[in-house]
Structure formats: C-alpha cells, structure tokens
Specification:
The chain is an alpha/beta fold. The chain has nine helices and 13 strands. Strands 10-9-8-11-13-12 form a six-stranded mixed beta sheet. A five-stranded mixed beta barrel has the order 1-2-3-5-4. Strand 2 and strand 3 form a beta hairpin. The longest helix is centred in the first third of the chain and has 14 residues. Bound molecules: guanosine-5'-triphosphate, magnesium ion and zinc ion (ZN). Magnesium ion binds next to helix 5.
Length: about 290
C-alpha cells in the first residue's frame, strides 16, 4: 500500500517525508531520476516503503531557494548587518511573482539603523511589509498571523536572520532538529538545507541564504513580462507613447516620468533596467511558436 506525504527535508538523495505526523526516510525511485524529476522540499509524493514513486502535480516551484507549493514567500531583509542588497531583493519579488507566489517583505533587525531607508522605500511599492526584530520578538505575533494556514518560506541573503526568526516564532521547532539553537547562541549558524516544519496550521520553510539568483531556471526568459512584475508601475503602463515601450530611453515613457516625479522609487526603476539587460532578448529557440 502506498502512502502520500510531503517532502520536508532532502539531503544527498535522502528525503524525509511527513505523513500523518510521522517522518519517513525515503529515496527517489530510479524512474524519477531517469525522468529528470528533481524532488523539492514541499513536494507532495506517493511512497511505498522507502521508495518515492510519484510526485503529485505542483502548484508552483521556486528553484532558488528550492521549494515547491508555496503560498507566500517571506523575503527577509536585514535593515543593516548585512546591508540590504536592493537588486537581490527586487529580483526575488520578480521571481516570486513569475512563479505565482505572493511575496511579503520582512524587514528584520529593527533594533539596528535603517541607513538605506528600505522600510520607507518599499512602503509605497504595493507588497505587504512587516518590520520585525527576531532578537527582541517585536512584531513576531503580526508575522505569525500572516502565516496561519499557509505554506510559507523565509528567503534572503545569508545572515539576515531567517533561522533566528523561525526560532523566535517557534522555539520548539528548531530544538527538535538538533543543535541549531545551541549554535545560534554562540553566533552564526549557516543553514545548509531547506527544511519544512508544520506551523500555525500550515507549513514553514527555513532556507539557506544564497548569493546568486538567476532568471533562466525560473523560466523567466521574456523580458517583456518584467514590467508587469513591478506592481507600482501598473498605473502608468497604458500611458507610454509606444505601445510596446520597454520603459528605457523611449520617447514619452510614462513609467520614467513617474520615476522623475518621485511616484516610483528610483532604486526599483534601476533594478528594472538592470534586470531587463540581464535577461536580454529572447534567443531564437526561446521564441514561442
Ligand atoms: N541585531 C540583531 N541581530 C539579529 C537579529 N536577528 C538575527 N540576528 C543575528 O544575525 C545573525 C544571522 O542570523 P541567522 O538567523 O543565522 O541568519 P540566516 O538568515 O538564517 O542565515 P543563513 O542560514 O546563513 O542563510 C545571527 O548572529 C543572529 O543572532 C535581530 O533582530 N537583530
Ligand atoms: Mg539560517
Ligand atoms: Zn514606458
């Protein structure tokens, strides 16, 4: 008899599958590998004994951090230490939108200064935001309520405080998983794998920080989609002189005008232009037939 469960952890070809409150150690059956089906944490699977036989249809996949079937991506940014990298932050919002996952911005370390004024900049962009302090627990309740019944993940650069937040929200979770909390007391503990925990009637993933974030693995190859992933551009998109305006140096661009008037944060517009260059034009074999 095969069972159904959810992959909560994967390391070196070994997967932990949660089913009716019990964690089973499983491996992907040969066939899965042959079909190049990579298993993601968050995947619903059918397994028999130790063999994962089938991946059930996914709602979405985020290649980095690698996790499937998310409702909400909590993008964690530290106000300082480390200083926010706005380009990475904006890329994550774009990739989440492209994958069909709602982004929420979490500004952590409110006990520190906000030298770049990120909390202010992003208050006008249109994403839900929450400012928290994992160290003191400030606003942890607010964050917890945003997670109820949902499958969520914390994502962001290394050191922004993702694991500390998990620890603050649910001290019992990480203690169960071993020495994380003890190590946290000593200072840095770098998360090495995505881990999914039952939390507030839903699921919560802690993920490792990353340095590189690419568009291609997410299937974002067509840069003409980009502007739609900047919610604050929406009011202006129909008002450009050219119908297919790329919002660069084109004549009478309504988006650029809104930036000049201070209605769109300049840093967001700069991120847009940089992403537009980074994605580049469609290669001939990428053009939809
Ligand atoms: N001042 C301050 N420091 C914090 C806060 N939250 C976390 N830290 C510290 O930031 C450092 C990194 O925290 P982690 O939780 O390990 O960061 P992470 O995002 O999980 O990092 P990776 O696992 O490497 O991706 C630790 O020294 C924490 O004590 C906070 O609210 N304020
Ligand atoms: Mg961590
Ligand atoms: Zn334009």
């Amino acid at each position: 008899m095969s069972k159904q469960g959810i992959v909560v952890r994967g390391l070196g070809g070994l997967y932990e599958v949660l089913c009716d409150g019990v964690v089973y150690e499983c491996r992907g059956r040969g066939g899965l590998k042959r079909d190049r089906n990579i298993l993601y944490v968050g995947d619903f699977v059918e397994f028999e004994g130790e063999a994962i036989e089938k991946i059930l249809p996914r709602r979405n996949v985020l290649p980095r951090p690698p996790v499937a079937n998310l409702d909400t991506l909590f993008i964690v940014v530290a106000l300082s230490d480390p200083l926010p990298n706005l380009y990475t932050l904006d890329k994550l919002t774009v990739i989440a939108e492209h994958c069909g996952i709602s982004p929420v911005l979490v500004f952590n370390k409110t006990d520190l200064q906000d030298p770049l004024g990120v909390a202010e900049t992003y208050s006008s962009v249109g994403y839900p935001t929450v400012s928290v302090c994992a160290r003191t627990g400030e606003n942890a309740e607010l964050l917890r309520r945003m997670m109820e019944g949902k499958t969520c993940a914390f994502a962001g650069l290394s050191g922004v405080g993702k694991s500390t937040l998990v620890n603050t929200l649910a001290p019992d979770l990480l203690r169960q998983t071993g020495e994380v909390s003890r190590k946290l007391q000593r200072g840095r503990h770098t998360t090495r794998a995505v881990e999914l925990f039952p939390f507030e009637g839903g699921l919560l993933a802690d993920t490792p920080g990353f340095s590189e974030l690419e568009f291609a693995p997410c299937g974002l190859l067509d840069r003409s989609l980009l502007a739609d992933y900047f919610p604050e551009f929406a009011p202006y998109l129909g008002d450009c002189f050219f119908r297919d305006c790329a919002h660069g140096k084109e004549k009478s661009c309504a988006v650029r005008a809104a930036v000049e008037e201070g209605k769109i944060p300049r840093s967001r517009y700069e991120s847009y232009l940089r992403m537009y260059e980074e994605i580049g034009p469609l290669r001939p074999w990428e053009v939809a037939k």
